[in-house]
Amino acid sequence: MDTMRDRFASVVTRLLDEDPRVAVVLAEVTADRFTEAFRRHPDRAVNVGIREQLLVGAASGMALAGLRPVVHTFASFLVERPFEQVKLDLGHQDAGAVLVSAGASFDWPTGGHTHMAPGDVALLDTLDGWTVHVPGHPDEAETLLRHAVAAGDDKVYVRLSLQSSAEGRPVDGQRFLTVREGRSGVVVAVGPMLDAVLAATEGLDVTVLYATTVRPFDADALRRATATAGTDVVLVEPYLAGTSTAAANDALADVPHRVLGLGVGRAELRRYGQFEEHLAAHGLDARSLRERITLFTAGAVPAGV
């Protein structure tokens, strides 16, 4: 199976051929997969080199000139390093673009902390008007990429990762999907966390919602689920723990409820290790998730929360 990043390159290359409004702006990362695109569309396929502030600034200029730029590099270099340009060149000027990241929270542990970005979605949450897609499978990544490019002049962030579910789901770029129904709590699994959540909740009497579009947050889906499953809600996100806790609290503001936000912790893990070791260290493997979800839905608060 191809990766989300493989699918991104093939889809955007096709979109460049199909739509004269689409442009792609790169900063070396993944540029080797756009060789043909550079040759066929030298005016709309640009590699600015390792200059991430210029990456976003150039995309803003393209957007203001009427193009629909797709902007790509590692998440830490796409959201964190050029955040001022994301805030001003895109946000302040009301210029739309599709930011597509690779690397996720810790896809490449040997790259060290400079290549990790668990805070990317939380950082974008400080800005107004961003749609955020977090696919869990390459098929979903393709669907959400096409939604993002077709979204007029909106500001969209698509968060790709190496971690992938075994199968893709029929996502629509808007709503949460109900994957499992129960009566003793609701677990919201975001993107690539779905398979671990399904394994963790096997045999538990909980509803599982699947979220691949997290901003806007599907408050209606959460409210419908809690109406039958109860108002204990667990959010399992592949980025900073608690990123969507406020959104869930807002959705249930008029009813008594509890929310547990699980995700990547704030403590920096200074040993490279393997991706799976980072998952386990942050309590995002199936065994750890089951322990924490079971405790919470039984009325306790898991240690460390």
UniProtKB/TrEMBL annotation:
* Cross-referenced SUPFAM superfamilies: Thiamin diphosphate-binding fold (THDP-binding), TK C-terminal domain-like
PANTHER family documented for this protein:
PYRUVATE DEHYDROGENASE E1 COMPONENT, TRANSKETOLASE-LIKE PYRIMIDINE-BINDING DOMAIN-CONTAINING PROTEIN
Q: What protein name is recorded for this chain?
A: Transketolase B subunit
GO molecular function terms noted in the UniProt entry: magnesium ion binding
The cross-references to Pfam families, in alphabetical order and at most eight, read: Transket_pyr, Transketolase_C
Q: Which domain of life is it from?
A: Bacteria
Q: Which InterPro entries match?
A: PDH/Transketolase (IPR051157), THDP-binding (IPR029061), Transketo_C/PFOR_II (IPR009014), Transketolase-like_Pyr-bd (IPR005475), Transketolase_C (IPR033248)
Q: Which residues form the Transketolase-like pyrimidine-binding domain?
A: 2-167
